[in-house]
Amino acid sequence: MTVSILLADDQAMIRTALASLLEAQPEFSVVGQAADGREAVALARELRPQVVLMDIRMPRMDGLEATRHILSEPTNARVVMLTTYDLDEYVYDALRAGASGFLLKHAPPEELIMGVRAAADGGALVSPTITKRLLKAFTHPPPRPVPQPTVLDQLTAREREVFGLLVRGHTNAEIARTLFIAETTVKTHVNHALDKLALRDRVHAVLFAYQHGLLEVPY
């Protein structure tokens, strides 16, 4: 199955480099390129890509606003933010707007490829370390959040166990080894937990956990 991708970046050289890298993968197809946020919104509406790689800082309309527009419409697109800095001031707002994470432009090519694959598969792209740094920089929770376990009442006991490991950055394989269950069973529990809590993906599960005092931001 081919994954359709829209690239949005105001630098033509970066778009060309990204397109060449992605098109070299047999399962990827770059269906469009946008030079600013407005063009990205228009092309996303027209082309309906599965994944949008969105630069944060662009003229006319920045990537954050473009992401809001794209995800406010009926679409299955997954938006992944591209940034030069791992603590870009807009990243946290982008995640809250519904983006599925972000990649650094200077990251190794294989990381970009894995990131796009993960997004197309409904996964998340922000590593636990970077997520914690973002939350530390751009949120201001109380020094000792009061846990609110009632928000997880709708989950089964096993789903709560899986969710607790998930938001601490464990992969499905690691959760399976920890709980002595099959990886396919972990994936089922993850999907059920995200659905019940109305969360898009693992990134938003981490944000949810911090916001509800289920995890402490490291200071």
List the SSEs and their pairings.
Layout lengths: L2 E6 L3 H12 L4 E7 L2 H11 L3 E5 L7 H10 L5 E6 L7 H7 L4 E3 L4 H12 L7 H11 L18 H10 L5 H8 L3 H14 L5 H10 L8
Parallel strand pairs: 1-2, 1-3, 3-4, 4-5
| Broad shape | globular
Order of adjacent strands in the largest pleated sheet: 2-1-3-4-5
Unreliably modeled segments: 141-145
Give the DSSP E fraction (strand runs of 2 or more residues): 5-15%
Helix and strand content put the structural class at alpha/beta
Descriptive report:
By secondary structure, this protein is α/β, with parallel strands linked by helices. The protein folds into 2 domains: 3-126, Response regulator (Rossmann fold); 149-211, Winged helix-like DNA-binding domain superfamily/Winged helix DNA-binding domain (Arc Repressor Mutant, subunit A). Helix content is 48%, strand content 12%. It has 10 helices and 5 strands; from the N terminus they run E-H-E-H-E-H-E-H-E-H-H-H-H-H-H. It has a 5-stranded parallel β-sheet, sandwiched between helices. Helix 3 links the parallel strand 3 (51-55) and strand 4 (78-83). The radius of gyration is 18 Å and the shape is globular. The protein starts with a strand and ends in an 8-residue tail after the last helix.
